[in-house]
Amino acid sequence: MNKQKLIGNIVKVSLYALVAAFFIWAISNHYFDYIFSEKETFLNLLKQHIQLVLVSSLLAILIAVPAGILITRPKFRKAEWLVSNFANLGQTIPSLAVLALMISILGIGFQTAVFALFIYSILPIFRNTVAGIDSIDKNMIDAAKGMGMKPLQILFRIELPNAAYSILAGIRTAVVLNIGTAALAYVIGAGGLGVWIFTGISLFDNGFLISGAIPVTLLAILADYLLRKLEYVIVPKGARRLE
Amino acid sequence: MHKLFKLVPLIISAVLLSACSGFGFGGKEVTVGGKDFTEQYLLSEMTGFLLQEEGFKVNQMNNLGSSVVRSALENGQVDMMWEYTGTALMTYMGQEPIPDPQQAFQKVKDLDSENGIHWMNMSPVNNTFVLVMQSEQAEELGIKTLSDLAAYVNEHPGELTMAAGVEFANRADALPGVEKTYGFEFGTEQIKQMDLGLTQRSLNDGLVDVTGASATDASIKRYNFTVLEDDKQFFPPYYAAVSINQEVHEEYPEIEEITARLAEKLNDDIMRELNYQVDVEGQSVSVVAHDWLVENGLLADK
């Protein structure tokens, strides 16, 4: 046990040291200067990036969670493979290809990028919703029926609270992926921090690259953190996983 | 067993061949670099064909940003490439533009000799930057020159939007320089940066009002855009020439003569036509490059 703890701590400390070293290196080379010298541009790109992620994620949640709930009703069980395959398909097409395909239909810009990111976010949310509801002990549902609950009551009082953890895990996965993928939105003129990342690649300028990439990384970490906090609020005490 | 016997000569020859190239017996090898737009794909491909014809083994590193491929040339990962005098002068060397093509070429050649890069065979292909608009809109707003554009933007700030690839949006010899020279600014929100291949299309679809292009671009003809006159002559000439690693040039002096054949035959109109065949008619770069070389007697038809 002590040995394990020691190794764990060593790994932790060296990781922190690495991160710190990276930041010291980047700052001493003035790689973050663009964020301050071109503040207006930076804030504009950040705003675009957050908009892309928010709109596409919310749409995905609005579509995927109800779809997951519907598919787990006895009436629609037969259609599960169909919807699952659709969601899978959305995930398997490379994100750049989705963007390229959508250009001919939706043109260039914000809405195309949002649509592509939305397609991309559906699968993890849908999958986790279905898995969460399926994992509930059948005996619990039987007990609820025995108490005289209606199907809707069972859904809202038993199934959703118990599946909440899984659903939120899916949303977290989707949002974090989405933040990274949104960097590709630049390609079709939808802006976002990808503009600076690609500028850095194209002009061979580490300043642009790091001023674009690190905020994207931090954004993903922040989103993950916030959604974990949300988990604490939403998931009932009894259904929490011990971590 | 029989099968194995059949394979023996193959294996022996494979071993011998790999040994040859490994030890440099007759293994003339050269890496040609290229940037990320059609004209460069074509130039790189043509050069590759001609060198292969002369017994070189050619590796290609295409589709790179200007600064990336330039760094590769400086550190020897790429042996040679077609570069534009204006780009080298202003972007890599930070010099002031020189309007006279020959003088510009000489200056670049002199400066680059310190970097171990040799310049040769300047072609008459001038791929300078231009700003273009939809003809109807340009007429409607009364914009014919870049001065007109500057005046319009200053009077109606935030109204016109512009599509640009990252290089055009950030390079001192492109948009920032134009804005400085003509005294106007689009504003960060108005500049939509995107993949270079989509800029003309987004102008044609009316998503933006202005975009940058190169003078040999096929899309100008394709979409019937109006080229805004550069009335203050901000954009210097960008003549295509071969820039090659000095050591490679000394090792294979014949490359100069081989690429000279190509440089002599090319010009703006030909380049525009070839770009058109690839971009608009959708023919493959290899086919267009090969056919043109054969038609002009630079390559034997196989």
Automatic annotation (TrEMBL), chain B:
ABC-type glycine betaine transport system substrate-binding domain mapped to chain residues:
28-293
Residues spanning the signal sequence: 1-24
Name listed for the protein in its UniProt record? Glycine betaine ABC transporter substrate-binding protein
Gene3D superfamilies documented for this protein: Osmoprotection protein (prox), domain 2 (3.40.190.120), Periplasmic binding protein-like II (3.40.190.10)
Q: Which Pfam families match?
A: OpuAC
Which keywords does this chain's UniProt record carry? Signal
Source taxon at top rank: Bacteria
